Amino acid sequence: MSSVFPLSPEDRTAAARLTTAALRESGVGEHDRVVVALAEPAGALWATAAADVARAAACVGPRGRMRLHHALSTLKATTLVADPDGRDGPAGPPAS
Hints:
globular, single chain, alpha/beta, 3-stranded parallel beta sheet
């Protein structure tokens, strides 16, 4: 296990359901390949939800532009899930 969720099983199920719904409402479907570039525990939650919705899903973490580029190319990703403000994404500043 790569992450810990401080949630009850019911809360974890609800969070997964909401995340899956968000992906579907964003247009992600069974023909998509999703790469998640978020830190834990959010990365694992989004990647698990993406695996339920899309053809393929991978969580590569928020750091490493070349690693992200390689994952996007190798998986032929159609969707990238990243933090919009850049603090948790591949272009964000290093952690202090």
